[in-house]
Amino acid sequence: MEILFLGTAASEGWPGIFCECPCCTKARLLKGKDIRTRSSVLIDGIYKVDFPPDTNWQANKYGINLAEVEHLFVTHSHNDHYYPTELSFRAKPFAHIGQGKTLSIYGSEVVKNITTQALGVHEKASDISFQIIKPFVEFTAGKMTILPLIADHDPNEICFNYIFSYEGHNVLYGHDTGWYPEDTWRVLGEYKFNLVILDCTNGQIDEERYHLGIKGVIKMKNKLKEMGCMGTKCNCIATHFSHNGGLLQAELENILNPEGIEVAYDGKIVVI
Ligand SMILES: [Zn+2]
Ligand SMILES: [Zn+2]
Ligand SMILES: [Zn+2]
Q: Mean pLDDT score of the chain, rounded to an integer?
């Protein structure tokens, strides 16, 4: 499996679109890995998680033809993760796509409703289908088996994290979330992961509700290890960073690398 991190920022991006804080000012000067767009990954070119407002920019930056994406898994409806207005441009005359290429979207009922609303009259021509998924009910998409987990993120809607299983490899897609609820921990205990991706939004702020920070990521990694969920070669990667967390790429690496945790950046590729 090849996992490409298309974006690694929290909701307003980093630099934040209108922000003048020291961390955003520094990122504007340093550029490189400190410029972060909204979070999403692409797996093996055809599986995508989330569809943020930076999607077109990310596709152009990494040379991705989005018409090739067959399956889109949506974590939740917040518009930094899901910006369905752009999906209406999959229909003619906005897009001219090879015959038979369709896009299947998987997500909650809330996500389905905003998708239908956004597609409007373009729904049929966009060749997009939507499947409502349920917590802890496994489904397949192409060659991938997916288990949706319950995250602790927004009490007003079901927010999913995912376990992706393919060719004997298991990946935990673990953001946006705070400390997992018991039901999720119970299910995680049944898996051995090759890759674990965790939420580090809060950086040096010690807060575990709705998002994690440095402390929470280290604690979660250690718990997964204690539970026997991480094999010896399991990569652990922190992502979804906010400028309010106060730590730039090099500072995050200095703290997390000695703990055996990598720090994601836009364009990072992991092969497992
Ligand atoms: Zn988010
Ligand atoms: Zn800022
Ligand atoms: Zn969110």
A: 97
Q: pLDDT, tens digit, for every residue of 93-138?
A: 999 999 999 999 999 999 999 999 999 999 999 999 999 999 999 9
The answer to whether residue 229 is domain-embedded is yes
Question: Model confidence over 148-175: pLDDT tens digits?
Answer: 999 999 999 999 999 999 999 999 999 9
Domain annotation covers residue 156: yes
Q: Is residue 272 part of a domain?
A: no
Output the CA 43–ligand 2 centroid distance in Å: 30
CB-side neighbour CA atoms (13 Å) of 208: 9
Q: Are strands 169-174 and 160-166 parallel, antiparallel or unpaired?
A: antiparallel
**Nearest ligand, CA of residue 159?**
3
pLDDT of residue 232: 85
Tell me the pTM: 0.97
Dihedral angle computed from the Cα positions of residues 190, 179, 211 and 138, in that order, rounded to the nearest 10 degrees: 30
Ligand 1 centroid distance, CA of 78 (Å): 7
Eight-class DSSP state of 99: T
Instruction: Show the tokens assigned to 265.
Output: 């950046």
CATH number at residue 56: 3.60.15.10
Q: How far is the CA of 99 from the centre of ligand 1 (A)?
A: 34
User: Residue 223 is part of which domain span?
Assistant: 2-267
**Would strands 193-199 and 169-174 be described as parallel, antiparallel, or unpaired?**
parallel
Q: From ligand 2's centre to the CA of 97, what distance in Å?
A: 39
Q: 39 and 239 in contact (C-beta within 8 Å)?
A: yes
191 within 8 A of 170, measured Cβ to Cβ: yes
Please tell me the number of the ligand nearest to residue 21's CA.
2
Domain count, the chain: 1
Quick one: pLDDT at residue 133? 98
